[in-house]
Amino acid sequence: MKSKKENIAEYILYLWQMEDYLRAFPQQADNYQELYDLYNMMHQENIMQKGHLQLAINALNELEELHSELLETEAPYKATILHIQPSLNIFKAKTDNPCMSDIEACLTLLYQVMMLRLQQKEISQETQIVVNDATQLLRFLSRTYHDQETTI
User: Fold this and answer.
1) Which of 39, 17, 14 minimizes the C-alpha distance to 29?
2) Average pLDDT of span 69-88
3) Cβ contacts of residue 104 below 8 Å, gap of 6+?
4) DSSP state of 10
5) Residue 52 near residue 12, CB atoms below 8 Å
6) Which whole-number Å values give the CA distances from 77 to 1, 10, 59, 67, 93, in the listed order?
7) How far is the C-alpha of 94 from the C-alpha of 126, rounded, in Å?
8) Long-range CB contacts (< 8 A, 24+ apart) of 51-54?
9) Model confidence over 103-127: pLDDT tens digits?
10) Overall average pLDDT of the 75-93 stretch
11) For 26-36, what is each residue's pLDDT tens digit?
């Protein structure tokens, strides 16, 4: 499994991907201990149809807390989020959860684009620009999270 300390954004995306995989192919849970454990957690948390594991929710909350801290202390970070904000607002308005946070929107955008690429669908240049900005933002957040976790 991806390490949360190594890259928390990739960890969240990985969990989301495994949730979708296990929903589509529940029989695969018997083949690998990690999948079996995640499948059992999904059953216990009653998210076999939709929703996210508490592990993913907790990691997202940690990322949200760090995001709030950085908005207060890091001017370049704040400038990055202000730059991407209009695009994120447009994206959120097109989802079934327009009130999601900016960080959840970045992750959701990356996840949806990943799914489109797996289906070999074209990604517009405009969307790719937003994806690049979201990736840069999440990379900075993940690196900062990693640095904080390794100094504790």
Assistant:
1) 39
2) 94
3) 60, 64, 97
4) H
5) no
6) 29, 19, 20, 9, 23
7) 15
8) 52/15, 52/16, 52/19, 53/15, 53/19
9) 999 999 999 999 999 999 999 999 9
10) 94
11) 999 999 999 99
Q: Which two tokens stand for residue 91?
A: 């994206």
Give me the residue label for tokens 């959701």.
Answer: 108
Q: Whats the size of the chain, residue-wise?
A: 152
Q: What percent of the chain has pLDDT over 70?
A: 98
Mean per-residue pLDDT, 129-149: 94
Tens-digit pLDDT profile for residues 31-72: 999 999 999 999 999 999 999 999 999 999 999 999 999 999
Round to whole Å and give the CA distance between 152 and 133. Answer: 29
Closest CA to 113 of 101, 100, 123, 125: 123
Give the torsion through C-alpha atoms of 115, 91, 108, 55, to 10 deg.
-160
CB–CB of 94/111 below 8 Å? no
Contact 4, 11 (CB under 8 A): yes
Task: Find, among 41, 53, 48, 71, the residue nearest to 13 by Cα.
Answer: 53
- Is residue 145 within 8 Å of residue 11, measured between CB atoms? no
